[in-house]
Amino acid sequence: MxxxxxxxxxxxIGSGVVFLDGTVVNVALDTIGRELPAVFVGRLEGLTYVxxxxxxxxxxxxxxxxxxxxxYGRRRVFGIGLAWFGVAxxxxxxxxxxxxxxxxxxxxxxxxxxxxxxxxAIITATWEGEERGRAIGVWAAATSAFTLVGPLVGxxxxxxxxxxxxxxxxxxxxxxxxxxxRYVPESRDEHASGRFDWLGAAVLAVGVGGxxxxxxRGQQGGWTDPLAYAAIALGVVAIVSFPFLMARRxxxxxxxxxxxxxxxxxxxAATLLIYGALYVNLALQQxxxxxxxxxxxxGAALATIPPAILLVLLSTRFGRLAGRLGSRLPLTLGPALxxxxxxxxxxxxxxxxxxxxxxxxxxxxxxxxxxxxxxxPAQLVSGLGLAMMVAPLSTALMGSVPVRRxxxxxxxxxxxxxxxxxLVGAVLFIALSATFYPTLSALLPGMDTASPSFRAAVQPLVxxxxxxxxxxxxAAREASTASFHLAMAVVAALFAAGAAVSWFGLRPGVQVxxxxxxxxx
Length: 521
Fold this sequence. Notes:
By secondary structure, the chain is mainly α. The chain has helices spanning about 5-35, 45-70, 75-95, 100-125, 130-160, 165-170, 170-180, 200-220, 225-250, 260-290, 295-305, 305-325, 330-345, 370-400, 405-445, 450-455, 470-505. The protein is built from 17 helices and no strands.
């Protein structure tokens, strides 16, 4: 292959494994929670951290990582990120406890931050003009393929091998990516200052992580753990002080001047709400389908395919439409449809049948009536809304700032999209736990559902051990379903709030830059 084709292989794998781990891990969560022991955390608490740890570090370091690549060489930083991601994936795959897995996911998030901004930066530096557009198209198609096929491959790996294979499968991909990187030319910004806002990145991580961890830990411990209150207090201080810190830093992580653009501010506010709800929604659906309704990992993965197909088929068309008519309407209708899809999941009954897929039995790949009636309508409506929203959001974002700040705007928006998930995850963890046990208490009046031993054995969105008896199993299924319904109502409200922000915040018509180039440092 030519060096340029190897370059595409390298950047596609680098960004692909980051997206892959954002989707495939969801399929394995239920199995991880059942098979991996926990020392310091509860089951659902630990699974919440598995997702939140990855996204929190990824969000905090994205902007900083892009600057590091510009200064020290995009190929070099990208290569470090690939190798680091491979090592972190091995650590995840070999984790002996749920607590150790959370720490390894922190490492993965940091490595992913080095890969995400580097992919497009390398393409931009390697190709020009029409060839650059084709290269970006190939890269986008490859990452879409990772997103589309990833959950299905993950489900098959979990069933055929182990949940550990979901992480270890990254290793051969990383090896291929590192080999391909030999053919990637080095590039850097010769005008980069070499000054980085490490303090800003740390404060952002402490703010998001402190709030998410404190709220989750507090609910898990019945709000008796002083560590939870300390984490929340630290998170509040960090979040409140962040804009003041950015205003005083000579080279801020996030230049506040960019938020003088009304459209940029609106798009990022909508992103925080929509993507925060989206990431957590995908994880909770997997836990509910597998842990409550009895879907196999592959069956639960197949349930997520319809939205991915709609995204691949329709996203470009809605992007062209936004380029002609403006992004306001699709950024309103898209999240509104996603809200409707989440509300359709509120109607899924606890008795809905599972989808047990066995790789050696082709007939098991045929969707059962429970999926077609109870789950598929929600997936189709949500998928249509997602396809309607993704490309117009990027169009509105890129049209809201001067061209020379497009990279910074993209990095900030990427960070915002990940930062919302840990916060929303903490809120939904509180909602799930606060609903599950009172419902369980009402269904099992003669049992002490508040005792620590009972709560350790019976937790939301998981099938209890058969030794507890059919009455407890049936009550846990009903209580988990009620908790999931509440979580989906909260998700729908966040999607609707994102739609409202877009409708009232964006002006009608095609977005134009409303920020002068000289307004930014």
